[in-house]
Amino acid sequence: MALLNWNDNLSVRIPSIDEQHKVLINMINSLQDAMSSGDSRAVLGDIFDGLLKYTDQHFTYEEALFAEHGYPETEDHTREHKAFVSKVTDLHKQFTGSSNFMIGVDVMKFLTDWLVNHIQGVDAKYSDHLLSKGVR
Ligand SMILES: [Fe+2]
Ligand SMILES: [Fe+2]
């Protein structure tokens, strides 16, 4: 599976958020690197933990901006965040709970597809609103 590369199609035109999305992409790439080079479960587990924590921070950042600037589509957007966190938390539980559970191509594909679709779909929708409120 190819690594995910940042490109302008992924930009939401808000620099602070683009930077966070780049970090998420790098973390997913690190997980994939670690998986394909057969790194230990401990290494994979650390990267997975980090991804979960950073995802949570990033969602909190976006949701705080929505609240501060009265974003009308907050509810739908937040629902997508919650569904993703619960799915990744489940995967993480399976990973830590079973020594047989491996992060496979299907998991990597789910993570990369979700992130790209979310950034280009619902994240891109808030750009005009937040930019008009001066968010950078
Ligand atoms: Fe985002
Ligand atoms: Fe989002």
From TrEMBL:
Domain Hemerythrin-like residues, every copy: 16-126
Keywords: Iron, Metal-binding, Oxygen transport, Transport
Recorded GO MF terms: metal ion binding; oxygen carrier activity
Gene3D superfamilies reported in the protein's UniProt record: Hemerythrin-like
Domain of life (superkingdom): Bacteria
Pfam families for this protein: Hemerythrin
SUPFAM superfamilies named in the record: Hemerythrin-like (SSF47188)
Similarity comment: family membership: Belongs to the hemerythrin family.
PANTHER family for the chain: BACTERIOHEMERYTHRIN
Entries under NCBIfam families matching the protein: bact_hemeryth, hemeryth_dom, PRK00808.1
Protein name: Hemerythrin-like domain-containing protein
Species name: Candidatus Lambdaproteobacteria bacterium RIFOXYD2_FULL_50_16
